[in-house]
Design goal:
The protein is mainly alpha-helical. It has 5 helices and 2 strands. The protein folds into 2 domains: 64 residues, Orthogonal Bundle (Arc Repressor Mutant, subunit A); 46 residues. 48% of the residues lie in helices and 6% in strands. It has a two-stranded antiparallel ribbon with strand order 1-2. The chain is elongated.
Length: 132
């Protein structure tokens, strides 16, 4: 399930892709208003995106946010893995084989792993370029 935080992060990145031609930095306040993401929540999301080098942040007067220059082919999978990686897993056994001692022999885990790989593959095909 895509959480509210992930939805807000997707809105945030989509905003930057829609406004690629804007050369000035965007303030968090403006970003909050434009994306309809609560300011308090947006600051938390922005920190994760800055730490992941998806966004750049400049503090102080005239500061703001921008899409990291080399991030031109981001997908939904990229953002979901940063914001909420466990919520895109079908089952805990698909995230790590160490969790369950039966994961290597379990037919359910085998099938879920196949589905998980297909799900990730499809999410990676949905780029932000195709969402604008």
């Amino acid at each position: 399930m895509i959480t509210r935080e992930a939805d807000y992060a997707i809105r945030t990145i989509r905003f930057f892709y829609q406004n690629k031609n804007i050369v000035k930095l965007i303030s968090t306040k403006t970003l909050s208003e434009e994306t309809e993401v609560p300011y308090r929540f947006l600051r938390k999301i922005v920190k994760k995106l800055v730490d992941a080098k998806i966004l750049i942040s400049q503090k102080g007067k005239g500061g703001g946010l921008a899409l990291f220059p080399r991030k031109t082919d981001l997908s939904l999978l990229d953002i979901l893995e940063i914001i909420d990686p466990l919520n895109i897993k079908l089952n805990i056994c698909t995230s790590t084989k160490k969790i369950c001692s039966r994961s290597t022999t379990c037919p359910v885990c085998k099938e879920l792993t196949i589905l998980q790989e297909k799900f990730h593959s499809e999410l990676s095909k949905v780029t932000f370029d195709c969402l604008i």
